[in-house]
Design brief:
53% strand, single chain, elongated, mainly beta, six-stranded antiparallel beta sheet
């Protein structure tokens, strides 16, 4: 999947009594111009089981987190990759999957707030590399 977005404010006055407070033409918050996502999966029988191998990745283009397009709370574009390997019974009654998210331990931000009038900025990082096991039993 590939998505292109050109979202800008046509009109936006922070203070209606002050025409100089316009943000018209600024990019809307959390609106990257380009996002990409894809998944590849391979399933193959192994005896009485089904083995599944999967990888998926995504790209999120650079974007601002505030409507004033403050560069302090801007995130550059970044890539994320995830992988998993699963084994399940053919009747799908039992399954176990090993997975890794953010495979390359990419540093990225998911949100940010500019509280300059209070003297600070808040940024919220995305999750680092995580891994785990998922087990399923259907009764």
């Amino acid at each position: 999947m590939c998505r292109f977005l050109d979202a800008k404010f046509a009109r936006f006055l922070l203070d209606p009594s002050n025409p100089a407070s316009t943000l018209a033409g600024n990019r809307t918050a959390s609106s990257p111009r380009v996002t990409l996502a894809g998944t590849a999966r391979y399933d193959m029988p192994v005896g009485a089981y089904m083995l599944s191998l999967q990888t998926d990745g995504s790209y999120t283009g650079g974007h601002y987190f505030t409507p004033d397009n403050n560069p302090v709370v801007y995130e550059d574009g970044y890539w994320l990759a995830n992988v998993s390997a699963g084994l399940q019974t053919r009747d799908q009654r039992y399954a176990v999957t090993l997975w890794v998210k953010n495979l390359f331990d990419e540093d990225y931000l998911v949100s940010g707030l500019a509280n300059a009038s209070l003297g600070f900025y808040e940024i919220f990082p995305g999750l680092p590399r995580t891994f785990g096991v998922t087990a399923i039993g259907r009764f």
